């Protein structure tokens, strides 16, 4: 099938990696820039990502084709990498690589493709090479370095399951994850080399912001990529940071790979240039009061919460991950910023028998050996629904010890994200009733028939805290998702039925965004966004001046480039995995808000300027100009769209052919 690009213009084929939505959002954005030109090319998008993620560019005229054109990194959690399965999938893909290259190159000839664009699928570059046409790599990273990084000695240990001794804690932290084991460099090297060779076929690199080294173009730094990272600081080494800050015109580039013998020699030297931020722009009206109301009405937020001066908005988005409803109502705010999974565990680690100490609750035997004669008996007793103020006979013994503090067996619920550990939070704050009634008393001496529990404890052990004091202590340990009552949260990727089944409701202050909501508009109205580090989310946060609270992905090396981008052009606050899973979001959210609120206020005042569209259109025109030069066979190549290098490639002396 051949589709005219109009006025005899070019046929461009855009290969898009199916790994994550960041690739798709920027491919769709650049495809729209190309299709908006007066000199309109035909644009094909080839990807294993679903057609709907390219909806805006398809509506503009892009032609979508689904195809398995790249392996994927396996992520059992939103921020965890399964090294072994990732390598298995890569190895299986490489076994059929040659056949796929032949099929794709034949298809490129059939549609009379003039050029291949790739983000960042090495198969597209290989297919273009076999078809004798140029290819352009448009990305901020390449997968050769991602797979190479699977040999890093850094161990991404899974969350340590809290042993469910007390049976009141749900089991979200007991998720089954394989141990993280580095893949040997010797195993990875030949596999990574095949990917690198594919990217070496590309003739032009348009390097996007948030970049990491691209070893298929720049000679240094070379692979293996673990050498780029300081493991102690979990950041790029100073040398790598300096490399990324240098103009690309100063880099020594790897030479071109010649076309197969039946084709003419490549007419232009290899080039690498800096590109602008490819990002979907928000609707111009979103920064007006009417536009803000429109977006919030779509979400279903009541009008009294629309005023940006009175209501702050947190967006929770993990880039395509799907939320499930919580099992029950969840308390979303509290005065505390510190918590452990469940108030009971929190109190136990703070003090037991009135003696401040740390007790590793993940090992019940450690607790039992020191305080109880039989760990099986305490576990069984605490699982009994009949526990009350009267101490069970199974817990009697060990005379002479002061009575332990009564503690709240706080019921908990969770926000569950498929592929990511749930957020565990108590359903409601502790009250005097919950402290004084229906709780186990872990006494080791018989109760007195005369004194109350608190009075008995004070008489026997001066350090004992009363129920009221305990209540205050428990409230201080209550987890906090949102900073205070002026905040609401909008959760993305969730069914509208989430939290509304079986008569249940959403957590207070939480709302669900429709699945088809335009994320750039939602990001623009937000005061803070919480999610995982990915190009799509980072770019939209930078564009909208929305502070970003991110949960790190330590085994995905692209993260380091995105952190640098946030440091230079936005606001990024790291939220540890543990704090995320325990529902301790409020401090990080508030810090991000305070650091970014002035820039956010300026952006709201400034509104949508169209700057990104202008940059993208200029980049698109420059790409076609470069292709003109390629077609004409001239070596007088200039940087596409004037987006990074002003001098001729040959004048720089840093490109080779």
From TrEMBL:
<feature type="compositionally biased region" description="Polar residues">
    <location>
        <begin position="432"/>
        <end position="445"/>
    </location>
</feature>
<protein>
    <submittedName>
        <fullName>Uncharacterized protein</fullName>
    </submittedName>
</protein>
<feature type="region of interest" description="Disordered">
    <location>
        <begin position="429"/>
        <end position="453"/>
    </location>
</feature>
<dbReference type="InterPro" id="IPR053205">
    <property type="entry name" value="GHMP_kinase_L-arabinokinase"/>
</dbReference>
<feature type="region of interest" description="Disordered">
    <location>
        <begin position="637"/>
        <end position="657"/>
    </location>
</feature>
């Amino acid at each position: 099938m051949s589709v005219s690009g109009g006025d005899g213009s070019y046929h461009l084929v855009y290969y898009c990696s199916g790994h994550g939505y960041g690739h798709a959002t920027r491919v769709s954005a650049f495809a729209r820039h190309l299709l908006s030109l007066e000199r309109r090319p035909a644009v094909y998008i080839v990807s294993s990502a679903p057609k709907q993620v390219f909806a805006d560019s398809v509506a503009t005229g892009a032609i979508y084709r689904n195809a398995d054109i790249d392996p994927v990194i396996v992520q059992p959690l939103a921020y965890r990498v399964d090294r072994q399965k990732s390598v298995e999938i890569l190895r299986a893909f490489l076994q059929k690589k040659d056949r796929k290259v032949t099929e794709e190159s034949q298809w490129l000839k059939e549609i009379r493709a003039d050029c291949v664009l790739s983000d960042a699928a090495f198969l597209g570059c290989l297919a273009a090479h076999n078809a004798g046409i140029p290819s352009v790599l448009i990305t901020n990273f390449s997968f050769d370095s991602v797979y190479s990084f699977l040999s890093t000695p850094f161990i991404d240990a899974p969350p340590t399951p809290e042993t469910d001794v007390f049976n009141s804690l749900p089991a979200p932290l007991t998720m089954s994850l394989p141990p993280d084991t580095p893949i040997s460099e010797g195993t990875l090297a030949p596999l990574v080399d095949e990917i690198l060779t594919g990217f070496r076929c590309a003739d032009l690199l348009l390097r996007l912001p948030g970049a990491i080294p691209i070893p298929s173009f720049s000679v240094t730094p070379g692979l293996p990529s673990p050498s780029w990272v300081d493991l102690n600081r979990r950041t790029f080494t100073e040398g790598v940071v300096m490399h990324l800050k240098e103009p690309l015109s100063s880099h020594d580039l790897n030479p071109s790979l010649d076309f197969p013998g039946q084709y003419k020699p490549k007419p232009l030297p290899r080039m690498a240039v800096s590109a602008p931020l490819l990002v979907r722009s928000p609707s111009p009206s979103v920064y007006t009061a009417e536009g803000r109301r429109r977006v919030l009405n779509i979400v279903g937020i009541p009008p009294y919460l629309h005023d940006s001066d009175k209501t702050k908005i947190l967006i929770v988005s993990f880039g395509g991950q799907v939320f499930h409803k919580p099992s029950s109502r969840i308390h979303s705010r509290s005065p505390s910023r510190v918590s452990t999974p469940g108030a009971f565990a929190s109190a136990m680690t703070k003090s037991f028998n009135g003696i401040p100490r740390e007790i590793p609750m993940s090992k019940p035997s450690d607790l039992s050996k020191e305080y109880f004669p039989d760990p099986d008996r305490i576990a069984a007793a605490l699982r009994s629904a009949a526990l009350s103020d009267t101490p069970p006979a199974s817990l009697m013994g060990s005379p002479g010890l002061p009575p332990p503090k009564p503690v709240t067996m706080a019921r908990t619920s969770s926000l569950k994200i498929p592929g990511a550990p749930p957020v565990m939070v108590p359903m409601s704050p502790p009250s005097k009733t919950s402290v004084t009634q229906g709780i186990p008393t872990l006494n080791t001496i018989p109760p007195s028939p005369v004194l109350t529990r608190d009075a008995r404890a004070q008489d026997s052990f001066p350090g004992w805290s009363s129920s009221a004091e305990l209540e205050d202590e428990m409230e201080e340990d209550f987890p906090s998702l949102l900073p205070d009552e002026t905040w609401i949260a909008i959760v993305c990727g969730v069914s509208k039925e989430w939290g509304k089944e079986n008569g249940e409701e959403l957590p207070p202050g939480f709302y669900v965004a429709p699945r088809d909501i335009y994320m750039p508009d939602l990001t623009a109205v937000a005061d803070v966004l919480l999610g995982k580090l990915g190009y799509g989310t980072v770019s939209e946060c930078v564009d909208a001046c929305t502070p970003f609270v991110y949960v790190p992905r330590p085994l995905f090396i692209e993260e380091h480039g995105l952190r640098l981008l946030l440091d230079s052009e936005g606001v990024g606050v790291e939220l540890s995995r543990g704090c995320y899973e325990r529902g301790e979001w409020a401090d990080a959210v508030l810090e991000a808000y305070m650091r970014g609120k002035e820039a956010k206020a300026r952006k709201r005042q400034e509104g949508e300027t169209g700057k990104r569209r202008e940059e993208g259109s200029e980049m698109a025109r420059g790409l076609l100009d470069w292709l003109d030069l390629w077609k004409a066979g001239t070596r007088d190549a200039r940087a596409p769209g004037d987006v990074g290098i002003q001098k001729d490639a040959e004048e720089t002396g840093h490109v080779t052919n």
